[in-house]
């Protein structure tokens, strides 16, 4: 019994020494841990930057698609004769504000009379690259890569940003 009690006391004493020596970190251990954290944080910053840029590029793709779809729906409805269009517009909206303000429908269509104001966009989305709801516009008769607008109608839109995408193309070429 005495031997068991003695071994038990030694085990308890050893456990106390281990706990007391591992209770805190030395200054060297603390400096090494901070150094590792700084290196990891420094490596993560470029990844965060690329991720943010990739998200903005995806938003630009969505916004361009949304505006272009609205232009296409306007053109389709104009071709169906659901509303009157000016001759020089060739059935495309005269400007982007027309897509937001809407147009007055009032023509006979198969299946009944369609009347009322139809809006093609709730709002003009902000260009995520410039932060403004301003877009470059091209008319039907403009060159496909024109950087100035003919002013008669809106056939296409593009970003006014002069930046370069992650894939090496210019945002204005999208």
Question: What sort of overall outline do the alpha carbons produce when their principal axes are compared?
Answer: elongated
Report the β-strand fraction as a percent range.
5-15%
The biggest sheet, with number of strands, parallel, antiparallel or mixed sense and barrel status, is:
2 strands, antiparallel
Note poorly predicted spans: none
Order of secondary-structure elements: HHHEEEE
Radius of gyration: 33 Å
- Integer count of domains: 1
Strand order of the largest sheet: 1-2
- Count of discrete alpha- or pi-helical segments spanning 4 or more residues: 3
- Span of the ends, CA to CA: 87 Å
Mean pLDDT: 84
The amount of helix comes to: 40-55%
Number of strands: 4
Helix-and-strand structural type: alpha+beta
What features would you describe in this structure?
It is a single chain. The protein is an alpha+beta fold and 174 residues long. The protein has one domain (26-163). Helices cover 45% and strands 11% of the residues. The protein contains three helices and four strands. The chain has helices at 2-21, 27-79, 96-101, and strands spanning 103-109, 112-118, 136-138, 156-158. The strands form two sheets. A two-stranded antiparallel sheet has the order 1-2. Strand 1 (103-109) and strand 2 (112-118) form a beta hairpin. The radius of gyration is 33 Å and the shape is elongated.
In short:
The chain has helices spanning 2-21, 27-79, 96-101; strands at 103-109, 112-118, 136-138, 156-158. It has 174 residues and is an alpha+beta fold. A two-stranded antiparallel sheet has the order 1-2. Strands 3-4 form a two-stranded antiparallel sheet.
């Amino acid at each position: 019994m005495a031997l068991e009690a003695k071994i038990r006391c030694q085990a308890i004493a050893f456990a106390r020494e281990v706990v007391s020596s591992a209770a805190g970190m030395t200054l060297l251990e603390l400096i090494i841990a901070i150094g590792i954290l700084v290196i990891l944080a420094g490596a993560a910053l470029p990844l965060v930057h690329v991720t943010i840029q990739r998200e903005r590029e995806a938003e630009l793709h969505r916004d361009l698609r949304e505006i272009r779809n609205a232009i296409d729906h306007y053109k389709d409805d104009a071709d169906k004769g659901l509303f009157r269009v000016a001759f020089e517009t060739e059935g495309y909206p005269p400007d982007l504000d027309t897509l937001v303000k809407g147009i007055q429908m009032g023509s006979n269509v198969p299946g009944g009379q369609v009347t009322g104001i139809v809006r093609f966009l709730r709002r003009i989305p902000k260009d995520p690259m410039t932060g403004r709801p301003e877009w470059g516009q091209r008319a039907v008769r403009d060159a496909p890569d024109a950087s100035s607008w003919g002013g008669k109608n809106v056939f296409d839109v593009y970003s006014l940003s002069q930046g370069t995408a992650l894939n090496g193309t210019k945002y204005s070429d999208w």
